[in-house]
Amino acid sequence: MATVEEEELPLVLVHRPPNFNFPFKHRLQTHFRLLDPLDLDPPGSTNSFFSRHSASIRTSAAAGKAFSPDVADLAVALLIDVLRRVSAGFRYVRGGLWTRNGEFPLGFKLGGKRVGIVGLGSIGSEIAKRLESFGCVISYNSRRKKPSVPFPWYKNVYDLAVNSDVLVVCCALTEETRHIVSKDVMISLGKEGVIINVGRGALIDEKELVQLLVRGELRGAGLDVFENEPDVPQELFSLDNVVLSPHCAVATPECFDALEELITANLKAFFSNKPLQSVVEF
Ligand SMILES: NC(=O)C1=CN([C@@H]2O[C@H](COP(=O)(O)OP(=O)(O)OC[C@H]3O[C@@H](n4cnc5c(N)ncnc54)[C@H](O)[C@@H]3O)[C@@H](O)[C@H]2O)C=CC1
Ligand SMILES: O=CC(=O)O
Fold this sequence. Notes:
Layout: H1 4-7, E1 11-13, H2 25-28, E2 33-35, H3 37-40, H4 49-53, E3 59-61, H5 68-84, H6 86-94, H7 97-101, E4 114-118, H8 122-133, E5 137-141, E6 153-154, H9 157-162, E7 166-169, H10 183-189, E8 194-197, H11 206-214, E9 220-223, E10 242-244, H12 253-271, E11 279-281
This protein binds 1,4-dihydronicotinamide adenine dinucleotide and the ligand O=CC(=O)O.
1,4-dihydronicotinamide adenine dinucleotide (NAI) is lined by residues 67-68, 71, 119-124, 141-143, 170-174, 176-177, 198-200, 224-225, 247, 249-250.
């Protein structure tokens, strides 16, 4: 039961993925009364509060750009790790292989690589900015050419892959983008090709990706997201050219501070009839 003082706070309906427990919930509760359907409905419920009421919900605050710099940092870290074999080198030293086998295999230079970004949104733009400063040559695919962007645009991912050494996948997952990185796209990237995914697992045909990596038909992959998290295909565990992270691109306290600031600003704007800083239309 809410107390009389709590009743006076603005009521906020929370819409979040079941695996996202925002650590600043208690601080938001000092300004707002939170109605979190996941506290009421079990995860996966087909008749959840949100699905029953979503038709009547028109506007909500989104994460906006709060996550983007940290996600972009991790994408670049995964790419450098795959190319320069950072994690593999660590395993080599720790496993005593340096003493036993001698020199470690050569890695590959980042500068000069042609990087194709699938989805030049908020995260993709941050990735482009970082990789450009490393001397990479950027191009991108999105539904439409972005007039203010200087990089070459490819209208499909296949053509982007043909003209890239690296594909960085960071577009939104929709029915249209599910498996947008198909077997054909990966084959067209070629044997020297590297794939980085910080978007969603299902943007890539994961079974085909695994097969291509196992058969040595790609140079490597850096993956933060997977089709059936937290289950990761076991075949990837023994591949030295694959770097895996547990969907943690946003997992920094700074990121959550930025998110808290944005959510609070959005909610305060909403309750004073001012424009939101970031909006989702349902
Ligand atoms: N690994 C992680 O921890 C995180 C992953 N993400 C994922 O990254 C995605 C992108 O995030 P933002 O850049 O912030 O979103 P955004 O909305 O700024 O950008 C999404 C981009 O996807 C593009 N896109 C949509 N449909 C497309 C299509 N059919 N073909 C090509 N491009 C298409 C849009 O043009 C847009 O440029 C999110 O939807 C989310 O799934 C987001 C945050 C953290
Ligand atoms: O962690 C956030 C996400 O969208 O992924």
